[in-house]
Amino acid sequence: MAYLNRHGFLLGVVPDTTGRVFWVAPSSTYSIDGFSYSASDGNDGLSPERALLTLGAASAKCNDNCGDIIMLLPGTHTLTAAVTISAAGVTVMGMPGVETATVRPRTVLTGSAAATLLSITGANSEIAWLHIIPVTAQIGLDIAATGCHIHHCSFDLSTPAANVSTIGAGWGSLGAFAYVHHCVVFCDSAQGPGFSGIYGRSIFEYCTTFQSTGTWAAAWNKSSTADAGTASLFRNNDFLATADAVMAKGIGGSGTSDSQGFCFRNFFSDSVTVAVDFTAAADAEIAENYQAGVGATDGGVLITATT
Amino acid sequence: MGRLTAYGVFHGNVQKYPGRTFYVAPSSEYRVNGRVYAANDNYDGREPTKALRTISRAWALCTANAGDTIVLLPGAHSISSSIAASVAGVSMVGMNSGLVNWIQPRVSITITATDEIINVTAADIKIQGIKFIPITAAKAIDFSSAANRLQITECSFDFDTPAVSTSTIGIAATGAASNVLINRCYWYSDGAQGLAIDMTATLDSTIQNCVFTLIAGTWAKIIGVGAATDRLMIRDCDFVAGGTSTFTGAIEGAGATIDSGVCVHRCFFPDQTGEALLNFPAGKAEIAECYISGIGGGDGGVLLTDIGT
Asked: Is A66's CB within 8 Å of B270's CB?
């Protein structure tokens, strides 16, 4: 449950919930209200002063569909192995403080082993307010469940060494009904997609993708097949690539279903080679997407191709 | 009112109204703060640990226009008969324990009888953060002429689960309610179901920021505009049809009787739409900045300039 400290503030703006809130510290020693505490997986984790040391220990305590929340205290949480979020309806979040928007949350999630950071197998999970740095050649969030809700997260694909297997968030089987919004992807080299394997009937909106340099094959890639992969909606997103960068694809699609991706009102930098690029032209439908004009020569050009 | 517990949480602070909050559990046993409790309609329902067992009992305990809120605890709520939402000014909210994923809320309601899930017959009722799974050939929500200022927001409607039937309907007006708002709702279907929203006879109402998704079959009509519908605004809605699925008509107006009775602004429709606006008698609808997407690009989307008649 949310927590009222002696100053009367609800720490971390914890959502209203009837579940438990498990607090996780970024290191064995951490500070709350100016006092130093020791984190331990032997704690119950139910108050900031009795924080758990590992995200895995918190995940193991969660129950299905009762509003449990894992709250990661500010700092860098370095996982030593993949953590599975298997209980349905669990929220994993950093502390948003008083922010209502961000391009880079203050709570960092990364890893030291060559492994996925979070493997999400519980339906209706929520991941929020985290800056996620995948390990080189690994996936940050590996999602194999329906209804995953990701918001106010940033994905750092600049820190890992360049590798096309490095992916921000990837959807495997059963990943339909994802809802991703107000997220940011950063990249400076030939990484894998920020979002990959996107499943059907999902919505991606109000996200921003920045590329500072290098050549990036696909910022996002939808790769699902058959009916389960159809009818995802990409709307109101922006893709920025500097003049030194080459973003070969903005929204890519490598699946085989007709009309699997609907791209409405997305905007792409001039440095994006093909803004919407699916395997077959009929795999995508587009309306009111624009590619910006350098020096405002044209004021932006309506995108009319999907390959 | 919001309630401070021993843990410092403001239970029921969801709506920030001065009324009471009634909690309803999805099952006879449920968890609060990690502990298992038994729900019972003999409780007062005022604390999560003393939750009511049925949604209907919560409605029976509410007082009209006092700011009461019914909070549905997370999980799948199954009801055996329709909920009579007959107390004015009540909010019924799914507890989603975070920002609502409005395409798949963590709280759902199904019904075992062939009837609507909720029958709204009072004013100023708000419904938020709930996934509705209607039974085949029935409605999820219907509302009468008394349901003025009804708000339905951040809800989803599962049209996959019911068998295909054009009598399966999401939200339906049964009278001339006014100031109805349907906001940020999501429909998903895999076949020839009935209307997602029937706004026949409503006045001064708005449908906004909704998404309608089809992945198979032919969905004939999505939003219905009927006799006496007047001053209906449909704006910023997206319609998508994947694979080989099609919409016959996204917004259907065969029964429209009021000149300029509906305005459609900034809505986007898939290429697989027979007519974005279908069967409207001349002069009954207005459109601006609506687009039909282009399959495989080609045109990059075409400004809608035709109101199908």
From this structure: no
